Amino acid sequence: MDTQVFHGLLWPTAEEVPAEDGRADFLADLQLDRIIDAACSGDASLRTHFLRAARDVATIAYRQAVMAALEDTTLAAHFRVFAHGMQGVRAWLAAAQRAAPASLQSARWVLQAAQEYILALRALATSLATARLEAAGLLGWREWLAVYLGGESFTALAEETQGLQAAFEAAAFNVHLRGNEVTISACADEVDYSAAVEHTFARLHDVVPVAPAVAAAEPLLLNPVEEEILACVAALHPAVFARLAAFRRQHGEFLDTAVAQFDADLRFYFAWLDYLAPLRSAGLPFCYPHLSNDDKSIVMLDTFDLALAASLTREGQAVVGNDVELLGDERLLVITGPNQAGKTGLARAIGQAHYLAALGCAVPGRSARLFLCDRLFTHFEREENLAQQQSKLEDDLVRMHAILRAATSRSLVILNEAFASTTLQDATALSRRVMAELSQRGMLTVFVTFIDELASFDAHTVSLVGVMAQQGQGGETARTYRFCREHADGRAYALAIAEKYGLSYARILERLPA
Amino acid sequence: MKPHLLYPDRDFDLDSPLPPEAAALTQDLELRVLFGVMGGEDELLRQAAEHGLLGAGCTDPQHIIYRQATLRDALAHPALVQELFALAGQALLQEKSAYRSVFSRFPESRMKRAILALSALLPTLHRLREIGLGQSGSGEGSSFTSPAFHKLFAHWVEIFDDAFFAQLDAHIAFLKLADGALISAHLDHNCRAAVHVLRAPRGNPCNWLQRLLQRYRHRRDALQFAVGYRDEAGTRALTQLRNQGIRRCADALADGVDQLTAFFAQLQRELAFYLGAMRLNARIDELGLPLVFPQAQPVQGGICEERGLYDINLALQSGHAVVGNDLAMSGKALVLVTGANQGGKSTFLRSFGTAQLLMQAGLCVPASQFSASVCTGVFTHFRREEDRDLRSGKLNEELSRMSELVGRLRPNTLLLMNESFAATNEREGSEIAAEILRALGEHGVRVIFVTHLYAFASARYAESRADTLFLRAQRENDGGRTFRLEEGEPLPTAYGQDLYRRIFQEAEAETPGAGFRA
Fold this sequence. Notes:
The complex is a heterodimer.
Chain A: H1 25-29, H2 32-40, H3 47-50, H4 57-70, H5 73-98, H6 104-129, H7 136-150, H8 152-170, E1 173-178, E2 181-185, E3 191-192, H9 193-202, H10 224-236, H11 238-251, H12 257-281, E4 286-287, E5 290-292, E6 298-303, H13 306-314, E7 322-326, E8 332-336, H14 343-359, E9 363-364, E10 367-371, E11 376-379, H15 392-406, E12 412-416, H16 424-440, E13 444-448, E14 461-468, E15 481-485, H17 505-510
Parallel strand pairs in A: 5-10, 8-13, 8-14, 11-12, 12-13
Antiparallel strand pairs in A: 1-2, 4-9, 6-7, 6-10, 14-15
Helix pairs in contact in A: 5-6, 5-12, 6-7, 6-8, 6-11, 8-11
Chain B: H1 22-28, H2 32-39, H3 43-54, H4 61-76, H5 78-100, H6 107-135, H7 147-159, H8 162-174, E1 181-187, E2 193-200, H9 208-218, E3 223-226, H10 232-287, E4 295-297, E5 302-309, H11 312-318, E6 325-330, E7 334-339, H12 345-361, E8 369-373, E9 378-382, H13 391-406, E10 414-418, H14 426-443, E11 446-450, H15 454-463, E12 468-475, E13 481-487, H16 496-504
Parallel strand pairs in B: 4-8, 7-11, 7-12, 9-10, 10-11
Antiparallel strand pairs in B: 1-2, 5-6, 5-8, 12-13
């Protein structure tokens, strides 16, 4: 890798892919839009990162390595400190941009931005110097950073920033407030009276308290009195302010594009890790999937619908994971089961994992082996609309047609209760025709349906059936389903067993501490 | 600056809620009578008594000795203790009217109020110094012997010295800021004047303003502007600046007042506890009953030895002498009390629980002699009379109460059980009791169990274990009661027939002291 060029943490080379249309059906159907919104948590600039999935295994591996490295909280802390510092830099520069060009404040903000920039970069370089890095993206950054920090322009920036900073700190002054009169003058050898009072009362403390720093959020702009004081201080210390103006002229554009890129990319990784953090601490497993370019077998252990898991975890409820396997020449997964069994959730989970994997993200489950598909297509029921009842089937078919036309043999297609608005016989026939087409083209397909007989469509078909899972504790017959690979013959419904618990004497004895 | 009258190293805490078992203890041991005597009309005294007995008591015999010594001093110097209590209350009242009356977040007004409060507190602080000088180790008039009071008086002499009072006077004078506020600052990253420090010129602060004005006139680097009186925004900004300038000073001053206030408040609470104890001792003395400073044994010692232990609540309520028990229960992990109805079993249980609480609060115990090992907590599981009509529901209620207790019964806690599990038939109740008590015993929980569950008690008796003591309420041959407990094997009858006869045949004479409950 060229040490003079750093392309960022998302793309190992300058080559980039266009962003997905943010309104694509599959984003809403798989609730990826909700997941992405939550992960971005208000930072709109992050969204495009989540809409640009990688197209090749190498890029995904590049990202997975970075993401996995940042899971080490000790290492991540260095980068988080840096990201936080850069957030400040951006804020100061934005403020300076907005202000009037002649404003003394805005020049000071550029200096502040430069100071925080230098601090953040140097701190990061110091902490990375001894860190064990393995991810190519992070190694590339460390090399680039070392060269940049040693460069002439950065050194000059750092020197002048420091000098000016010191000049400002030295420019102390006294304010004498008497009635409505304000007098600014140079400091002499006056006594710190607060310290005198603190000293008097120190004897009353068993432990001398540390006065809390009053970090009241002050407005950026000065009030009229502060403006006048600033003008007086500028007159009291003219050299300092002349030097500040020169600094802005010379170093105003200090922010390097590669640093900006790195900072932006880093936020993508932290957005995802922070999104997963509460789910992880609720005990949910996540893994970095193995992605294949040519092998269409899929193995997902303990996977779950991420959007649903996020809301269940917030409410303190348990999440049930499921295993999905398509091995050999199995291509078609048919999911059946009772109402509310979580069929849609499982279908979503499969789609979400494939999309998120292509972003380089950790995905739900203990382990996952996925196919790097070229595109994702979903066919979910559109919102019920009584006025258009007649055209609903038609709408279903139009959308299905578009999917079949656009999809390639490398696409993943997820169909959810297609053709529900016609008779069972019609729905079965239509489904069979679509499935025949998909099967013939060898496409990976997930088919959620209420029609049991579709579960044994052909030799490439795998049937997953929802059965009521036995809840370990609590005793209430919650609708918690697990999907089992078995023939869909309706027997699963009979497996629903409720466990009874009562407050028995034996239970009370169990609770006695040993 | 802590009074530390109850613990050598800790405050007496009245703010934490009482532990969950407190309500049951109060009810089951009928402690309201005791709290009534200790507290009387005074809410603080009552609260101190409740927290002293039911809050975290002493589990270290050394702490009990520490309190006993403090109480002895208090009993010997009632007038001074009363004065200190009054001084603390008065100081708090003054501080409240000067300082707290309108709470202010603005440093300017906070400082003004702190100055007022300090001025008001000054006489009290002088008096504390005086008392300290009179009573501390070097003082010839000192007759205090407890480490707690000694340390307190010495501390006052140490911190309230001449330098302290001189500095207070200087601060009170200067911080009125009659000549305006001189504040040093520099520009922060926003070009805003920041890191304000209130300054005073060196040397004599009296004519500092004149000197300063002189300097302004002779130097080119003094710049000046004025804010128009009608300029509201400007005036507001000026006020804000002034507030920022004096904030640290105001905080330090207010913090000083807070420290003093906190001290007086704590002193008041801790004295309230001892005043309550003094009232209790006075009342028992009036009744002519014995009270003794108990000997607290380390936690591992099993249950206790006692002589003439009586129910203090019953004595206080009835206002006359009551029957006491002499028992040797040391080394026992389980005491099973069986025997005659109305034979004084519950009274014994209550008197023992109360004595244990009093001892661990560091107070005197209603007995002629009392020695017990400390426990890590006292819990009660009493049969609740009011639920008698709901038989099946009642067992559930009892079991769920027990189940709640179980989670808090650490080793060496003392559990007092009164007719637990009587809400079902004897066989079932006995089985439940046997299993629960086996588990508790293995866990190291000490239990005193008043029971009519003969099947349980006799089976336990047959085991003849060294760590179990069997007590029986006595019945004289004519059916009369002595209200004393003595060692004895459980009997299959509780002589309930006696009660039947007493009520149905008026020939049976009523025994003195009737009013005991079964």
